[in-house]
Write a structure and sequence with these properties.
The complex is a heterodimer of chains A (432) and B (306).
Chain A lengths: L1 H5 L2 H13 L12 E8 L4 H12 L3 E8 L1 H13 L6 E3 L4 H5 L7 H7 L6 H5 L2 E2 L10 E2 L2 E13 H6 L9 H13 L5 E2 L9 H11 L2 H8 L10 H15 L12 H9 L5 E5 L3 H7 L4 E4 L12 E9 L7 H13 L1 H11 L19 H15 L2 E2 L9 H14 L5 H17 L1
Helix pairs in contact in A: 3-16, 10-12, 15-16, 18-19
Chain B lengths: L2 H10 L3 H36 L2 E2 L7 E2 L3 H8 L1 H31 L7 H15 L2 H11 L5 H8 L16 H27 L2 H9 L4 H12 L1 H16 L3 H6 L11 H10 L4 H25 L5
Antiparallel strand pairs in B: 1-2
Helix pairs in contact in B: 2-14, 3-14, 4-8, 4-11, 5-8, 8-11, 11-14, 13-14
Classes of the chains: A alpha/beta (432), B mainly alpha (306).
Chain lengths: 432, 306
């Protein structure tokens, strides 16, 4: 009895279909009423909007939605997933530990059934985990992205005009020249937050991508054997960041500035550049319509390749979820349905991913959303997508990046020590 | 035979069955409370001690690690700094509220009954009824770079020292300490004002007749009279400092660096972010022992002399 129950229904269904027709047929939500037990992230309306559209198209499916803040999700997901009513759909902040504990459904069968395995491999790589929980980036698929975010530099067009900036910089040196000009004109060059967790990881990782190989940074994030963050090119990147701090390109109170304050400073026109992601594009198009531009972090040399932090808005299915087939069908629908992809871009602001042959939904010409979506194409062409250095381990952000970069801002630690301490903490955490 | 003697002899002559019933009744009163105490205090403490010997992520398989978690807690410099931060907070959470509370209680001693006394007590008690989280949020606004504190400094010509107080390596911990002092001031004042009202006024009159100064009155009447209340204040505030969490979590998140990280915050992070239940439990046990070590002498020192 038990062995039978352990075989996923999807596998049985798919196997039966294969035997009958010789081809895979994808699972669906059927016609009976289904309530998808859903655990979403507070403050992000995208999944809820998608669920409404889904119910409109498939009236037998409704969603029982619970929401929590990111931090709470991070802490609660193992317990929620190991409970007696694990979610069918869950927003996953990180997946390695959950895979290690056997709490997430392996999506390989669904990937075959729905043809996800034909998507660009880079799209799914971050949601692949090797057996045992590490490294990430290879092995079986355990989650899908509702969309794929992109980070870079936003700028205030009115302030840019004041310092004579007519086009985005093409090299790091040009970018630094613009910051120096802004500083001289008494315009704060960069707006950033650095509390309670640091935002300086954004410019730092962008610089790492400009001076070094983004693949090596990913190796470190994915916990590949022998990976080290303390490399010569990363040291160059860190030294540039340290120089920016010393040159006063950041406001001197950033260690006491949180994300919301930084955002209101930028929207209030108090600074020229903001390192952030396309999840704010829609917000800027509304609150600073026409006054915000976006560019990818420029490479070190003119004509070089671009790199950017880019990550899926990760959703997975509980290992023992009751409606796994329907949840997988929903994930596939999000990536392929026209209406869903439109919502994805309009509400989420990010690239909906999915099959390469599907066109991107149209957006308002000249909007920031248009610019961030186009940036995604550049990054795909340059193969420059990196996961976030903050995601390398469950605690590396709070325990290493945040304290060391805060110390660097206060002039209590130099870039070399900072990188060394982060690597030491990384090694320590992986050894525990 | 006096009444007391007769009662004593009657109790002595109680039949065994009645005495047995008395014992049973006593147990009946104790057992329900004990069950709750055991379930919610003793068992969790026991479990924490057990977990502290394991390496466990809270879900998967646990392995027995002996005392190695304690070795980490007591040897790594970060953990030692975190424990040190908690002791620095004691200076702010305890000394300031108790000192100001004593001053206020002595000052309004003669006006306790009047409208002024009631108003003063209400105003001073307000911080105590405000949730810690709300206090943390309000203070982090006030201490922000463009907050009220810096504006006030600017007004009196001290704009030069204005800064983001909670993000400054030198001032973040004192700033957090002051928030705690503000919150605990209410409790201490309330306790000490109530205590001072209990002191026999004739003692102060007698002292006055003998020509005692205000300081003498405070030193020889108020202070000894408030011995127990001071004991309670110090105990509660020391525990609040060593086991602090809410204010730090809201105001600084433990930063900048680990300048304001306290054991309570680190235990929570270790258990839920790092998923190292063993290490978190070891730190929790160490913290519990430290609290006991600090509080027991205070209890002993402030006990009323027999």
């Amino acid at each position: 009895m038990k062995a039978k129950r352990d075989i996923p229904a999807s596998t049985i269904a798919i196997t039966a279909m294969v035997m009958a027709t010789g081809a895979y047929a994808a699972p669906s939500c059927g016609t009976n009423p289904v309530v998808l037990n859903s655990y979403f992230e507070t403050g992000f309306p995208l999944p809820t909007e998608l669920s409404k559209e889904f119910t409109k198209q498939f009236p037998n499916v409704t969603f029982d939605i619970k929401e929590d803040l990111f931090q709470t999700l991070m802490e609660n997901s193992p317990r929620v997933l190991s409970g007696d009513n694990p979610p069918d759909l869950i927003r996953l902040p990180s997946i390695s530990d959950l895979v290690k504990d056997g709490l997430l459904k392996n999506l390989d069968d669904y990937a075959t059934a729905f043809g996800w395995d034909k998507y660009p491999p880079a799209q799914l790589a971050q949601n692949r985990v090797a057996e045992g929980g590490s490294p990430r980036g290879e092995g079986s698929l355990y989650a899908m992205g509702l969309n794929y975010s992109m980070t870079g530099v936003f700028y205030n067009k009115a302030l840019a005009a004041k310092i004579g900036m007519t086009k985005p910089p093409e090299t790091v040196a040009e970018f630094e020249g613009l910051m120096a000009k802004a500083k001289a004109a008494n315009i704060p060059p960069i707006i950033i937050w650095n509390k309670p967790v640091v935002g300086l990881t954004f410019p730092l990782q962008n610089l790492m991508g400009s001076f070094g190989d983004p693949g090596a940074v990913n190796d470190w994030i994915f916990q590949r054997k022998g990976a080290d963050i303390n490399t010569p090119t990363n040291l160059t990147a860190s030294q540039h960041l340290e120089q920016w701090i010393k040159s006063g390109y950041f406001q001197d109170d950033i260690n006491s500035v949180d994300y919301a304050t930084a955002m209101s400073r930028f929207i209030g026109g108090q600074g020229l550049f903001l390192f952030n992601g396309d999840w704010e594009s829609g917000n800027f198009d509304k609150q600073m319509a026409g006054n915000v531009g976006f560019f990818l972090m420029p490479p070190a040399e003119a004509g070089g390749k671009h790199a950017a932090m880019s990550a899926p808005l990760t959703y997975g299915i509980g290992a023992h979820a009751k409606n796994a087939d329907c949840a997988a069908f929903f994930l596939n629908w999000v990536a392929t349905n026209d209406a869903a992809r439109k919502i994805d871009v309009a509400v989420g602001g990010s690239n909906p991913g999915g099959p390469v042959d599907l066109p991107l939904p149209a957006v308002a010409p000249g909007s920031v959303t248009e610019q961030t979506l186009n940036a995604g194409t550049t990054i795909a062409k340059d193969n420059g997508a990196m996961d976030f250095i903050a995601n390398a381990t469950g605690a590396i952000y709070a325990e290493a990046w945040t304290p060391t970069l805060q110390k660097m801002v206060a002039g209590r630690e130099d870039s070399a020590t900072m990188l060394k301490e982060v690597q030491d903490e990384y090694v320590k955490e992986l050894s525990r | 035979m006096s009444l007391a003697d007769s009662q004593r002899s009657r109790r002595a002559r109680l039949p065994t069955s009645v005495r047995g019933r008395a014992v049973l009744v006593a147990w009946a009163f104790i057992v329900p409370a004990f069950i709750f105490y055991a379930t919610f205090v003793l068992v969790p403490i026991g479990l924490s001690i057990y977990y502290s010997l394991l390496r466990w992520d809270g879900i998967g398989k646990a392995t027995f690690k002996g005392l190695s978690n304690y070795l980490v807690v007591l040897s790594e410099s970060d953990f030692l700094q975190i424990l040190g931060n908690a002791f620095q907070l004691v200076a702010y959470f305890t000394l300031i509220p108790v000192a100001i509370g004593l001053g206020v209680a002595s000052a309004i001693r003669n006006h306790l009954g009047g409208r002024f006394g009631a108003a003063a007590r209400t105003v001073l008690f307000i911080p105590q009824v405000i949730p810690l989280v709300a206090a943390g949020i309000a203070w982090s606004w006030m201490l922000a770079s463009n907050g009220v504190v810096n504006q006030a400094l600017g007004l009196i010509g001290l704009g030069g020292i204005a800064r983001g107080w909670l993000g400054d390596f030198d001032f973040a911990l004192p700033a957090v300490g002051l928030i705690g002092a503000w919150v605990l001031l209410g409790l201490c004042t309330m306790l000490l004002v109530t205590g001072i009202a209990r002191i026999d006024p004739s003692l102060y009159e007698a002292a006055k007749i003998d020509g005692a100064s205000a300081w003498d009155e405070f030193r020889w009447i108020t202070l000894p009279g408030l011995r127990q209340e001071i004991g309670v204040c110090v105990t509660v505030t020391v525990i609040a400092a060593l086991a602090s969490f809410d204010i730090v979590y809201i105001a600084t998140g433990g930063g900048p660096g680990i300048q304001t990280t306290v054991p309570g915050l680190e235990i929570y992070r270790l258990a839920f972010a790092h998923r190292q239940v063993g290490l978190a439990s070891a730190l929790a046990v160490v913290l519990m022992l430290l609290v006991i070590v600090c509080v027991l002498p205070i209890q002993w020192l402030t006990r009323q002399p027999k």
